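Risk register update: the risk that structure generation would not scale has been downgraded. Supporting records follow, first protein first.
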Amino acid sequence: MNMTEDLTSVDTHFAFGKNWESYSSLIDEAAIESSTQALVRLLGRSSLEGATFLDIGCGSGLHSLAALRLGAARLLSVDLDPDSVATTRAVLDRFMPGRSFVVEQRSVFDLDPAASGRFDVVYSWGVLHHTGDMTTALRRAVGMVAPGGVFLFALYRKTWLCPFWTIEKRWYTKASPAAQRRGQVAYRTVYRGLTAASALVRGRARRADSARERGMDFDHDVHDWLGGYPYESILPDDVEKLMTSWGLRHEASFLCAPTRGRTHGLLGSGCDEYRYRKEDG
């Protein structure tokens, strides 16, 4: 990405918020339960009672909702996109009326523990690789974790075809709605063909299942994937190096592929999920 661009401006990013606004009408109890169970798995426990929770890149608000369902005592949800902010507020008001929460339009690059405090749980699923400066975004997120707290996040696995997908996403973000629809049809056609030969696409073939596991929707997930610009990716070993250099200890990983190396990327990249704990003190 052109580093002269303002990474805190929504104009430099794909319109994620419009996609999540559309998706939010599909949220039901089944989706909430799936999202809640996915959060429990990544969190490593079944309750957030008394915990403070920061959701960076709240999107539709589904995962913020899951945090409240698990008993989070204080919730701050932030997103760069004003449509995501409005959608998250609407979803939380709809499913958790009367509960206290804060939803703000804010970039991860503007997060400041001096202003907002630090949190027991900092959560960012599939977001920080879309910021235009993933390493800085990760460091900012880590800075919001309280001593002894956990950082839960998911990032795209690096693939051999990431340069192609970067070009595709840049095109798709600027394309007309009609051209985007043609792109979606083309992707689904290739997806169906390749998933029929599942041995070829082991790393990406579970996109539909992965979406359902987190309470998401396949068609909205495809639009999100094709348009997800800015775009970066990273290998698990490089995540480990960054986290340990910032004083965090690995607790759990849920990897999208059997190995820790690059995947082929024929259908794109899956997300590796991580739980790291910040050392006390």
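Supporting record for the second protein:
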Amino acid sequence: MDVWISIILSVCAASTPLLLAATGELVVERSGVLNLGVEGMMIMGAVAGFATAQVTGNPYIGALVAIGAGALFSLLFAFLTLTLVANQVATGLALTILGIGLSGMIGEGFVGQPGIRMEGLNIPFLSDLPIVGQLFFGQDLIFYVSIALVFGVSWFLFKTRAGLTLRSVGDNHTSAHALGINVIKVRYLAVLFGGACAGLAGAHLSLVYVPQWVEGMTAGRGWIALALVVFASWRPGRVLIGAYLFGAVTIGQFHAQAIGIAIPAQFLTSLPYIATIVVLVLIARNRRMTMLNTPASLGQSFVPDR
């Protein structure tokens, strides 16, 4: 039983960054913006969170700074694509490359230093319960934030007037503008939210999952988060399921190596990315599934009164 609990806790830890980044990107894409800079924002959050925790000795302050770093990077993306109307795809790719390079420079002095881990919560009585206590009442704070965020985003998008406004901007920004909605403002706020989520996802990597700084430690998780949004057909609940499926694949390859399965380690390491490609190919074969819930204005620039 202890082994199974350990595996489940590992899956939760591996899935949380994916869930956070994908939930934030879902809101961004629902507003009609395609942000391919998630990887860069995640890794900037990871280095900012780790560095701040080392300097202050407090991982919670590190997580807050990571949120700010992700939001700041997303603000640069928003300025370039929404104000200067730069190409969203090219800008996102450029910011990912910038984030990877800049994080390597900032984190150079922190390589090899032992990190300050964000420990799990200890809720009196509840955390001491057998099995249930470890799984549900002894996780780190960011894990609970990620779960709450999924339900909060779902409620916001489908139960509030502001969520309806955001979805209308993503579905038809011209009509939304004609109705008096400030399209650029809505998209700015959505992009900032997505960047903050990506920054927090990076903080989870460097403060919880692997409490240390390693250059390039996001290892393509930002791209998997982007694929998860498509996999979930832009629905928050499905993002939750998809994130944990991909997290299970990630952890599964480690356990497969541990028990000595005679498969090359390189193949096992590539399994999460192979799974991503397979899922995208299967979705692409069904045009109805591809178009389901897809924001009609996704990736389209908007300039008022032009």
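DSSP finds 13 helices and no strands in the chain. On this basis the risk owner (M.S.) recommends closing the item.
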